[in-house]
Amino acid sequence: MIEIRKYKKDDRKGIIDICIQTGYMGEDARDRFDDHYLFGLLFCLYYVDYEPENCFVAIDDKEGTVVGYILSSLDSKVQKSAFTRKMIPKILIRVIFYSLWRYRRSFNIIRHMRRLESKQDNSFKQELVVDYPAHLHINVLPHYHQQGIGTKLLLRLEEHLLLNSCKGVHLYTSDKNIKAIPFYKKSEYNLLHSSPSLMGLWPDAPDVKTLIFGKKLKI
């Protein structure tokens, strides 16, 4: 039996584990990015630490474990500023005093990512948040796919967004995430933008494009 409920502090490690296990364009990233906690700092821990009220998890009642999550922010502009203030110092401390010495592979990926970020064109992002102010991250462990868990997580979040008068939500994925794209389309998320310049975490995948999907919500 799968239960969808609000995030609790005890779910934190389970969310990091799912994040790294699905972090390589939907596939396992553990062998590529060896500092798993740093991966969590980059992609999921902001939400559970600073906006836990906007986070939901899927729990396998039999196992008592987190098997999926959906993390969100109601205001992407506010979140971007808060991430810079609250998370970047933690990330830098982790990278300089830990990853650099113990997880060289992860450190090299971070350097690669920072070089590409400096070349990004953010003009579309500014237009995006006018109609789609909220954004989300959703992941489910692979062996729990095809059970309707992702759909239940999306519906739970969309209900939450509507209760908070949010008119639209968007998400980022890649064109190589072949399992996720049909799921988003089936859930009535439309492709808003495609760009080769927004993705760039993985040095071994230089031709990956970032896809941005969005959905307007009926308030």
Task: Report a brief summary of the structure.
With 219 residues, this protein is an alpha+beta fold. It is built from nine helices and seven strands, in the order E-H-H-H-E-E-H-H-H-H-E-H-E-H-E-E. It has helices spanning 12-21, 36-43, 45-50, 76-86, 88-102, 104-117, 123-131, 149-163, 180-186, and strands at 2-6, 55-60, 65-73, 134-140, 168-174, 190-195, 210-216.
Helix and strand string, N-terminal first? EHHHEEHHHHEHEHEE
Strand order across the biggest sheet? 1-2-3-4-5-7-6
Low-confidence stretches: none
Give the helix level as a range of percent.
40-55%
| Alpha plus pi helix count | 9
* Strand percentage: 15-25%
Shape label: globular
Could you give the distance between the termini?
Answer: 31 Å
- How many domains is the backbone divided into? 1
| CATH architecture annotation | 3-Layer(aba) Sandwich
Look at the helices and sheets and give the structural class. Answer: alpha+beta
What are the defining features of this structure?
219 residues, alpha+beta, Aminopeptidase, 7-stranded mixed sheet, 9 helices
Commentary on this structure:
The chain is built from nine helices and seven strands; from the N terminus they run βαααββααααβαβαββ. The chain is of the alpha+beta class and 219 residues long. Strands 1-2-3-4-5-7-6 form a seven-stranded mixed beta sheet, with helices on both faces. β2 and β3 (65-73) form a beta hairpin. α1 (12-21) crosses α2. The mean pLDDT is 90.
